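Reading a protein record of the kind used here takes only a little practice. Think of the row as the fold of the chain written in a discrete alphabet. With that in mind, consider the following protein and its fold in token form:
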Amino acid sequence: MTMSLIAQAAIHQLRLRLGEPAAKWDAEHFAHNLFQGLEGDIRVSRDTVLVTYYNAPNAELLRAHYENLPEKLR
């Protein structure tokens, strides 16, 4: 149940950051139009986890939130 709540919170934040039209999609539409088309990879460089997504919608909007995240978190 805890993992489900964490996933729901993460998806809620992602919807807000993606903006329209994704912010108003129901769960099935969101999963089909966003998660089904995403591809990516995860790598580690020194003490940083590098996550790369391909085919992400509104990539420029997401980039503003997640690029250089270690510096933002400091």
In short: Strands lie at 39-45, 48-54. Residues 2-73 form one domain. The chain has four helices and two strands.
